[in-house]
Design a protein that fits this description.
Helix content is 48%, strand content 21%. By secondary structure, the chain is α+β, with helices and mostly antiparallel strands. The strands form four sheets. A six-stranded antiparallel sheet has the order 3-2-1-6-5-4. A five-stranded antiparallel sheet has the order 8-7-11-10-9, sandwiched between helices. A hairpin with a 5-residue loop joins strand 9 and strand 10.
Length: 549
């Protein structure tokens, strides 16, 4: 029995081994196995504790806390490859920064870059290095004796490096280096996953921010035409609009979405709501990776103002056509009118004042002259683009406009009161353009008095001279303008009239003309009491002007 035991000991320990050497080797083996066990446990704990939504700093802190239990080191730094730069991200302990966080390492003579590009662990003695690498100076400032640089990389790309420094001279064991390489491999996977997660999260956030920021309504449907997402514009519409409008919108976008699913083509519809607003509704198919429609996007745009502007521009085109037609008619009427005036004057020479035909001939001549003045005004109105500056009398401009509009005002039973200053000086400018301003002001005044129920509908035109400026005031006793709207009346296309009755360009054009003359248009108005528009034209035109209310 004893012999068998001796034989077994001999087999286990070797014939030449002693009892003492056996226990020594056994202890080393046990220590090594315990260390290996601890490394595996730490590796497992590190990987388990790393979550995909952790920041890079949290991952590194977690790793360092576990790593210092099995490997002795005095300093650990982590450099990450960002774009084409190797950048310092973090240092442990935190008080051992020698260069600022975020600083890029130059490639030239860099030990860290060499470890990363060659994908090899690099070891160097700091006191007696084999070559003068770039990082040597700041490592000496830290009083480190050696540095171990472990590259972090995956099959596809380089990620960064872990740099571990020691202040003591203990040699790095090959098992420790192998463990650090394994840890770097696992860390590479974790960092890649984290970066990918953050990229997806950032892209998702950017898409959501864009989705929410769009002013137009966007609704996303699944294949069963259930709403799975909508932006803030849809929620705002649902809160601010009447329940009937909400039901109407829902009815239309679901019906159109169904058609898009059936035809696999984009669809379009225009929706008109009770508040006179107009919306355009578009639906687009959404395809999956198998080219099958599995969703629909509805896009709803408010085009109310666009439609109004289109009508107003169309109306402006009609006005331009009317202007051209007026010019043609005026030229056509000039020839027969010349004959009427000439013949009436010739006949009047041969007729005595007490003759019965004298009154008739005089009326023919008077009406002919009136028609000639009206034609002259029509021609002036149709030649807006040909105007040049010259001296003229403001009262002549007012009279010319009244010749054009007198019948229209009298027909609507509007009393026109004129109070024209007789001794006004001549001013420099375009008489025809100033006439256009007066026409716009008179037409606005006419609309204002027609919009209110009154027995006495009045428009008063006053010319005056104040502070070296000629002023034309058009006062009406009409409906007036709300205070909150006074600041908007000079904006292009701003109007309260129906589309076929106005373009909203009159006052905008008028203020533009006033500016070219160095003048301004002032407004005073009170609701249900009337408005006064005052055109101010300096005797010596300047380029500065403003519209005041």
């Amino acid at each position: 029995m004893l012999e068998d035991k001796n034989e077994m000991i001999a087999l286990l320990t070797g014939v030449e081994s002693s009892k003492k050497s056996y226990y020594t080797e056994l202890k080393k083996t046990v220590d090594m196995l315990q260390k290996k066990n601890m490394q595996l446990e730490i590796m497992n704990e590190v990987m388990k504790s790393i979550k995909i939504d952790m920041t890079l700093e949290e991952i590194l802190n977690n790793m360092v806390d576990k790593l210092k239990n099995i490997i002795q080191f005095d300093r650990l730094s982590f450099f990450l490859l960002q774009n084409v730069s190797l950048t310092l991200i973090n240092v442990f302990p935190e008080n051992t920064f020698t260069i600022e966080r975020g600083i890029d390492l130059p490639r030239d003579r860099s030990l860290y870059w060499m470890a990363l590009t060659k994908r090899q662990v690099m070891f160097q003695q700091v006191e007696t290095p084999t070559w003068n690498f770039h990082e040597l100076e700041f490592l000496r400032n830290l009083k480190l004796t050696s540095i171990l640089v472990v590259p972090i990389y995956s099959k596809n790309k380089e990620i960064g490096v872990i740099c571990i420094g020691r202040c003591f001279r203990e040699h790095w064991h090959s098992d420790d280096i192998a463990f650090l390489e394994q840890l770097a491999d696992h860390l590479a996977v974790s960092i890649e996953n984290t970066q990918l997660y953050n990229e997806v999260l950032r892209s998702k956030q950017e898409w959501e921010n864009t989705f929410k920021a769009v002013d137009d309504m966007i609704i996303i449907f699944d294949k069963h035409v259930n709403v799975i997402q909508m932006n803030d514009s849809v929620r705002h519409f649902l809160k601010t609009h009447h329940h009937k409008d909400n039901l109407l919108l829902e009815q239309h976008y679901k019906r159109l979405a169904n058609k898009t699913f059936q035809t696999e083509k984009a669809r379009y519809k225009e929706i008109n709501f009770e508040d006179q607003s107009t919306f355009e509704l578009y639906t687009y198919p959404v395809y999956n990776n198998k080219n099958i429609v599995n969703g629909v996007i509805a896009y709803v745009k408010d085009v109310t103002e666009k439609r109004k502007m289109e009508v107003q521009l169309l109306h402006s085109g009609k006005l331009a056509a009317i202007g051209e037609m007026a010019a043609g008619v005026a030229h056509e009427l000039n020839s027969p009118l010349t004959a009427i005036l000439g013949n009436s004057q010739l006949l009047l020479r041969n007729v005595k004042d007490d003759d019965d035909s004298f009154t008739l001939l005089r009326d023919i001549k008077t009406c002919g002259i009136r028609c000639k003045d009206i034609i002259k005004s029509l021609l002036a109105f149709s030649r807006q683009e040909e105007y040049t500056f010259q001296t003229f009398h403001i009262n002549d401009a007012v009279k010319q406009v009244l010749n054009l509009l007198k019948y229209q005002l009298e027909k609507n039973q509007i009393t026109v009161i004129t109070n024209l200053h007789k001794d006004l000086p001549m001013i420099e400018g375009s008489q025809q353009q100033i006439e256009q301003i007066i026409i716009n002001l008179l037409l606005n005044a006419k609309d204002a008095v027609e919009a209110i129920v009154k027995d006495n509908k009045e428009i008063e035109i006053i010319t005056s001279l104040e502070n070296q400026a000629v002023k034309v005031s058009v006062r009406d006793n009409g409906i007036g303008i709300e205070q909150e709207r006074l600041s908007k009346i000079f904006h292009p296309f701003h109007t309260t009239k129906e589309a076929e009755k106005g373009t909203g360009l009159g006052l905008s054009v008028s203020i533009g003309i006033a500016k070219t003359h160095g003048g301004s248009i002032d407004v005073i108005s009170e609701v249900n009491k009337g408005s006064t528009f005052q055109l101010v034209l300096p005797l010596q035109p300047t380029n500065k002007t403003e519209a005041s209310v």
